[in-house]
Design goal:
- It contains ten helices and six strands.
- The radius of gyration is 22 Å and the shape is globular.
- The chain is mainly α and 287 residues long.
- The chain has a two-stranded antiparallel ribbon. The protein has a two-stranded antiparallel ribbon with strand order 3-4.
- Helices cover 56% and strands 7% of the residues.
Length: 287
């Protein structure tokens, strides 16, 4: 992942949780102003291949079907807090990969169902099936995968269930997994594929990042503490004077002026990292 991140890390969207919340906020505004307009935004693969390509993106604006304003605000705040915690711990690039891979897998699942329907009954059958896909496929299961990822990363973090019952994140994850399992068993093909793709994204993350899981609150506090600045001599590269350069993504203070850079005291050698990779990189060992 480090080489891939070094090449493409600069394209990652910073503060992606805020972008996600803004998308939901826009979707809720549309629902209250003109709910029928959401029919032109949802994930309908049949209409996508017939020219309505904007649906590849606009389905991300379609929010969960909650009507209670207070609950909506609490939900958005919860998702934002969870997303920010994961982004700060994993780094911007890894969090981007996790979210966009979940989106991509959901799209793939929708088109798989369309293909199956077309093989079984032809174009008309596929058109009808695609409407069911549009009704089921949403960001709901992607959000569930985010909650699971948070619980696996911070198993001892506390949630207030029903706003006053403290429950550890790992137990909340088990509850969510039981609920998702029941939905998978009792749901139809559409639910199973949508849910399966979200869980596949989480499974890929889990089995490729086992070493980075299980962070305790006290460890998180030490990770978010600002290290003492370290001075470094000026160096010149391609005629541009830079003081700092991340050993992972290659960004300098010229690329992101407000970015902070620090040396890692656990790496053997002079390795400096940006704030996104200071706590998420693999330590360099000479022996």
């Amino acid at each position: 992942m480090s080489e891939f991140e070094r090449r493409f890390g600069k394209y990652a969207i910073r503060n992606l949780p805020l972008v996600m919340i803004i998308c939901y906020a826009v979707g809720y505004m549309i629902r209250y102003i003109n709910p029928d307009f959401l029919m032109y935004l949802n994930l309908d693969p049949y209409k996508i291949i017939h020219g309505q390509v904007w649906r590849l993106i606009t389905w991300l604006l379609v929010p969960p079907t909650d009507t209670n304003v207070i609950w909506i605000i609490v939900m958005l705040f919860c998702y934002y807090s969870i997303g920010v915690s994961l982004e700060r711990t994993w780094g911007t690039f890894k969090f981007n990969v996790y979210i966009f891979s979940g989106i991509l897998l959901t799209l793939i699942g929708a088109f798989i169902i369309l293909g199956i329907a077309f093989i079984i009954g032809g174009g008309l059958y596929a058109a009808v099936y695609s409407q069911y896909v549009a009704a089921v496929f949403s960001t709901y299961y992607i959000n569930m995968s985010i909650l699971l990822a948070f619980a696996m990363t911070f198993p001892d973090a506390m949630f207030l269930f029903m706003f006053f019952i403290p429950v550890k994140a790992k137990w909340m994850a088990i509850i969510y997994l039981v609920i998702l399992l029941i939905q998978f068993i009792t749901g139809g093909l559409f639910v199973r594929v949508a849910l399966g793709m979200a869980l596949l994204n989480f499974a890929i993350f889990y089995f490729t990042n086992k070493k980075g899981l299980g962070i305790r609150p006290v460890q998180m506090a030490s990770r978010t503490r600002t290290p003492k600045p370290v001075k470094r001599d000026l160096s010149r590269s391609s005629g541009i004077v830079t003081r700092h350069k991340c050993a992972i993504c290659g960004r300098t203070e010229k690329d992101v002026p407000d970015m902070q850079f620090r040396f890692c005291t656990k790496c053997e050698g002079n390795y400096e990292y940006c704030e996104d990779h200071l706590y998420t990189h693999t330590h360099v060992r000479m022996s």
